[in-house]
Amino acid sequence: MGTAFAIGLVFIGCCSNVVSLELLVREFPGCGNIVTFSQFLFIALEGFIFETNFGRKKPAIPISNYVIMVTMFFTVSVINNYALNFNIAMPLHMIFRSGSLIANMILGIIILKKRYTASKYLSIALVSAGIFICTIMSAKQVNVANEGAEEQSFHALMHWLLGIAMLTFALLMSARMGIFQETLYKKYGKHSKEALFYNHCLPLPGFLLLSTNIYNHAVYFSQSTPVVVPVVGHSVPIMWVYLVVNVITQYVCIRGVFILTTECASLTVTLVVTLRKFFSLIFSILYFQNPFTTWHWVGTAVVFLGTLLYTEVLSSVHAALRGPEVKEKKTE
């Protein structure tokens, strides 16, 4: 029951979150900071009340370690949001971030001196190829959209390439944070909900650096078209409605993943999150009619095939199907 409930939370929360985010970004492409700040504030308040018991519960992991983790987490969140200002389409943004397997493997080899099987290297090659295909096709779309003036086309491409560089840096930083978190959990034990709270609470002062941008977008949101909220009966600017929905669904998504990690093996969690990304991408493309060519579909399929191969889902399914046959042979 708990597993089914958690999977439901992940799919409903995360897919709804993607829709609300795209509705916000389509209206105001630079609104990432106010969205991130709202998410962090809500999750921090919830954690302060229910996880730390209004600050009375001491952390199991030293605060100094959380400061390091939070610095990386805050940097990744802000850079991923800013990348949307550089002609990065939402589907490409989602596909690119699916390449976290590549970054994790590269840094795992360099930092942790890990070695992987041939199937793992093959899966990484597939993910890399898929992202490369989607990236190249998106670059062509940028050039076509600006082919009227050569100088304008060049600046648009440079602008887009800067966004790709930001996504790449955020991808590597996110992988480094994952490795750091893994070493902390090995040393102090798993405290996922505590880490969730501190990851969202400690960065809050950092948003003071972005206060002007956040305030400006708050003004823009307040000037958006008002809509009547059911039950309440009062009219509220529609962008604030989208933001509230985004914050709530983000919490539901993260909470669902947390429950899932306590109920299931990591393989199951990875599979659910991967499938969630795939359905979010498909929904985004169909609902918002984002430009997506045949090559984009090929690249997407290759990315998710590589991800499934990396998590050994296909071999696990094959073993599960062969299980009854193996048992019958043993009884004979």
Which structural category do the helix and sheet elements fall into? mainly alpha
Strand count, sense and barrel status of the largest sheet are:
2 strands, antiparallel
User: Helical stretch count?
Assistant: 13
Assign an overall shape. Answer: globular
Main sheet strand line-up: 1-2
Family: Belongs to the nucleotide-sugar transporter family. SLC35B subfamily.
Main location: membrane
GO cellular component, one term: endoplasmic reticulum membrane
Membrane topology: Multi-pass membrane protein
Please provide a written account of the structure.
It contains 13 helices and 2 strands. The protein has helices at residues 2-27, 32-50, 63-83, 90-97, 100-111, 118-145, 150-188, 192-201, 211-222, 238-263, 266-288, 294-310, 313-331; strands spanning 226-228, 235-237. Helix 1 packs antiparallel against helix 10, helix 2 packs across helix 8 and helix 6 runs antiparallel to helix 7 (150-188). It is mainly alpha-helical and 332 residues long. The longest helix has 39 residues, at 150-188. Strands 1-2 form a two-stranded antiparallel sheet. The mean pLDDT is 80. Pfam families: UAA. One of its GO terms (cellular component) is Golgi membrane.
Structure characteristics:
mainly alpha; 2 strands; 332 residues
SSE blueprint:
Elements: H1 2-27, H2 32-50, H3 63-83, H4 90-97, H5 100-111, H6 118-145, H7 150-188, H8 192-201, H9 211-222, E1 226-228, E2 235-237, H10 238-263, H11 266-288, H12 294-310, H13 313-331
Antiparallel strand pairs: 1-2
Helix pairs in contact: 1-10, 1-11, 2-8, 2-10, 3-7, 3-8, 4-11, 5-7, 6-7, 6-12, 11-12
